[in-house]
Amino acid sequence: MTEVFPLERAAEAYERMMSNKARFRVVLATGN
Amino acid sequence: MPTSISTSPSPTKNTSTKTMRAMQVTKAGGPFELVEREIPNPSPRQVRVKVQACGVCHSDSLTKEGIWPGIVYPRIPGHEIAGVIDAIGSDVPEWKPGQRVGVGWFGGNCGYCDNCRHGKMVLCIRGQISGITFDGGYADYVLVPYEALARIPDDINPVDAGPLLCAGITTFNSLRNSGARAGDIVAILGIGGLGHLGVQFASKMGFRTVAIARGKDKEKLARELGAQHYIDSQAGSVSEQLNAKGLGVDGKLIILGAAMEPLQVSSLAMIRRTQGHPGMAFRYVDRFRGHHAVQRHERSASHDGSISAGTCGRGL
Questions:
Q1: Which residues of B touch A (CB under 8 A)?
Q2: What is the pTM of this model?
Q3: What is the ipTM of this complex?
Q4: With contact defined as beta carbons under 8 Å apart, do B240 and B299 qualify?
């Protein structure tokens, strides 16, 4: 239920969330 | 679920270099910028959290687009934070480095105002908000007041835990505090970032769970998540599909979504059926105090996020 993006791709992750197409939560992962 | 995200902390190269990555916004409506910042040190009542994952919530747009008043830029968004305590301030009780923690929208409270004194810390008049009044979780590290922390159990992945800090707690607490009891009917309008969690919580709490969404695409998933009934809001009136008679006695329309358009409700219906329309935080979950049949008490929704005004008023 998550779509994972690396931290540096936050802009892309944000656009994905705003598109209402994410199924269902977009999450940034830092690798920490 | 990604398998590459460990639930345990690991050393990072940033600790040795004393810098961290952050995705900041420098002005309202501006782009995200990747910057390198010094790793900040906690003040006496703060902890430093090493961020493992941070959900991207629609309300991050309040920061990104400058919708929330008074934001001081540059600002790092993010309020669905899952991580590990990395350092603690001198006056922080109990919390220890290494503990898994989460941070949500609630970013601390004053403990002094009337709302705090009445136990409504989330409504504190001086309340801080993660990613809005202080830098949030789109970074390797974040400083937070210790009262904003929540423990994260060992058996949940950080990527899965992150969204529970906002979308999860919003839907879970709405249902938990709704007054509905097992067997009551709960209809969830919109199967998206919140609704997909709301259906799971509602079902597991023992409610008769109705999922309402546009089109047929989400029906299979909604049923897999626990919905016993599915309403396609594009296939005609939701009210008619449900044999609607409006909110039931003591029914509540719980509002979690901030629509710009005013809602219309019937004061007569509210009086005669002792109905309520409490606001929560994001989107909304319909809850109906049913008796036996799912068709007994329902109301109408024209599509996700908007209510066909007046329908609940006709439910007398």
A1: 1-2, 5, 9-10, 12, 21, 23, 31-32, 34, 50-58, 60-61, 64, 78, 80, 83-84, 137-140, 158-160, 162-163, 167, 192-193, 196-197
A2: 0.83
A3: 0.99
A4: no
